[in-house]
Amino acid sequence: MKPFIIETHGLNYSFGKRQVLQNLELRVPQGAIFGFLGPNGAGKSTTIRILLGLLPVPKGQVLVHGQDLKENRIDILRRTGSLIEMPTLYRHLSGHDNLEMHRRMVQAPKARIAEVLQIVGLTQDAHRKTKEYSLGMSQRLGIALALMADPELLILDEPTNGLDPSGIREVRELLVRLNRDFGKTIFLSSHLLSEIEKCATELAIIDKGGMLYQGSLQHLYEGTFQSNVLQLETSNNAIAHKLLEDHQYQLLPQEDDVLAVQVQDKQQVARINRFLVVNGLEVFRLSTHTYNLEELFLNITKGDVAATAIQEPVLFERL
Ligand SMILES: Nc1ncnc2c1ncn2[C@@H]1O[C@H](COP(=O)(O)OP(=O)(O)OP(=O)(O)O)[C@@H](O)[C@H]1O
Questions:
Q1: What is the mean pLDDT of the chain?
Q2: ipTM of the complex
Q3: What are 53-105's pLDDT values in tens digits?
Q4: Ligand 1, residues at Cβ distance < 6 Å
Q5: Which atom of ligand 1 is nearest to 47's Cα?
Q6: What is the CA radius of gyration of the chain?
Q7: Most buried of 30, 51, 127, 240, CB within 10 angstroms?
Q8: First vs last Cα of the chain: how many Å apart?
Q9: What is d(CA 302, CA 295) in angstroms, rounded to the nearest whole number?
Q10: CA–CA separation, 1 vs 31, rounded Å?
Q11: CA of 205 to the centre of ligand 1 (A)
């Protein structure tokens, strides 16, 4: 059983009369790379700002590192590193000197500067002015700043925003290393679903301030959503549709002259084929398709999949 490093209970938040978070129940397991996803305006940044004490904690309970955010804000923030989009850097100073200023603020030992430079791969460029840094280097320096006090948890809001493919890859590889080699829990929001797919172990998908899915990436692919889809073309799709529906197969919305059915395994594909042939239909095409994260995300946020009961069984406990 793993403990949760972030937990929210019935979290609500309003800007004036506009409610932007609705009973949000977030559960971030310790040790995870946790992708926090949602369409524009879903409430991701608002949640992150609350977690970082940048907005007042509203109705509901927020626990970080097992402590109540309302009562232990300072201690929680000391144990949490963050980066919101782009780091604020002193552009006329070197990477090293930016780190030195921050080190004094958080009272980290001097040796920590060399350590974080090494972790983010900026040792060689430490004494160059940061105005000469590429966006990817600046972003890695931002992560070095977040790591200065050696926090257990990193909260990153769109850390790859504006980066080119190689910058995105550098940041992704860094996050994976921080998680694997240094045991950091990483909570990150991103619109780059293919990036989340490559590095996250857990994720939450929210929309209109409410939770649509929370659990492991594996569960999302294999579990509730049955991400394997069989596409079918027959001599009479209308009859095939009716036959399959009458036999409790789940048909998915599909464009063109093709039927789409959720399937569990290849034996089921063979059964469907036999069933249609026995009922006098000719089967012209059978092909399986596995949803990727982007397709699942679009299905979930469009509401093609019922938004209830999409929470993985809780296998974790509080800190
Ligand atoms: N300071 C504010 N005052 C009023 N409304 C706000 C404020 N900040 C955000 N909102 C509204 O709250 C809702 C959630 O916004 P938020 O920035 O948290 O979404 P998001 O999921 O981070 O979106 P994006 O992916 O576009 O960054 C939106 O409807 C937004 O317009």
A1: 88
A2: 0.96
A3: 999 887 668 999 999 999 899 999 999 999 998 888 999 999 999 999 999 99
A4: 15, 18, 20, 38, 40-46
A5: 18
A6: 23
A7: 51
A8: 10
A9: 10
A10: 12
A11: 16
